[in-house]
Amino acid sequence: MAQTTYHYLIFETAGGFCGIAWRDAGIARFQLPTKSAEATERLLRRRLPDAEPGAPTPNVLETVAAVKRYFQGEETDFSGVELDLAGQDAFFRDIYAAARRVGWGRTTTYGALAKELGAGPEAARDVGQAMAKNPVALIIPCHRVLAAGGKIGGFSAPGGSSSKARMLELEGVSLAPPPPAQQSLGL
């Protein structure tokens, strides 16, 4: 019989307190860092009110260790993490699979992901909605998906687009405009 109860763990990283929730099928929720364990737990339990604290499985412990490395600025790959995306729309699952292929230090846009999935430019909004509803932010790297023109776009995690920019900076991605091609004469 499949486990239906979600278990969770709150843990500290260099970026703050994160939360992770899982069932037998895999990791179902991930809460990006906040300043306190209480705030993280509150946000995580808002989405999974019946979740209970639990002893992490070996896979969960590996993911927690990877998250800690990530927030220390170490190149980290979450593409092999087993996820439990039960209840997600099939198109959103396709979007999430495409987003998981965007590696460390790289970015894409909502429109480019829509095009990769064979959808027209109007599907860029669907991609944006999927990123906003991402249940496992960081593991599905929605922070690497930008608005048209490489603009930062929105981010529904604590800290909003500032958090998104900080995460990209950890990966060596600069969203600052390039320096001018010509030097000023200083006049």
UniProtKB/TrEMBL annotation:
It comes from the Bacteria. CDD domains: ATase. Its EC number is 2.1.1.63. This is Methylated-DNA--[protein]-cysteine S-methyltransferase. NCBIfam families: ogt. GO terms for molecular function: methylated-DNA-[protein]-cysteine S-methyltransferase activity. One of its GO terms (biological process) is methylation. PROSITE patterns: MGMT. Signal peptide: none annotated. It catalyses: a 4-O-methyl-thymidine in DNA + L-cysteinyl-[protein] = a thymidine in DNA + S-methyl-L-cysteinyl-[protein]; a 6-O-methyl-2'-deoxyguanosine in DNA + L-cysteinyl-[protein] = S-methyl-L-cysteinyl-[protein] + a 2'-deoxyguanosine in DNA. It comes from Rhizobium redzepovicii. Gene3D superfamilies: Methylated DNA-protein cysteine methyltransferase domain, Winged helix-like DNA-binding domain superfamily/Winged helix DNA-binding domain. Pfam families: DNA_binding_1. The keyword Transferase applies. Residues 91-173 form the Methylated-DNA-[protein]-cysteine S-methyltransferase DNA binding domain. Keywords: DNA damage, DNA repair, Methyltransferase, Transferase. InterPro entries: MethylDNA_cys_MeTrfase_AS, MethylDNA_cys_MeTrfase_DNA-bd, MethylDNA_cys_MeTrfase_DNAb, MGMT_N_sf, WH-like_DNA-bd_sf.
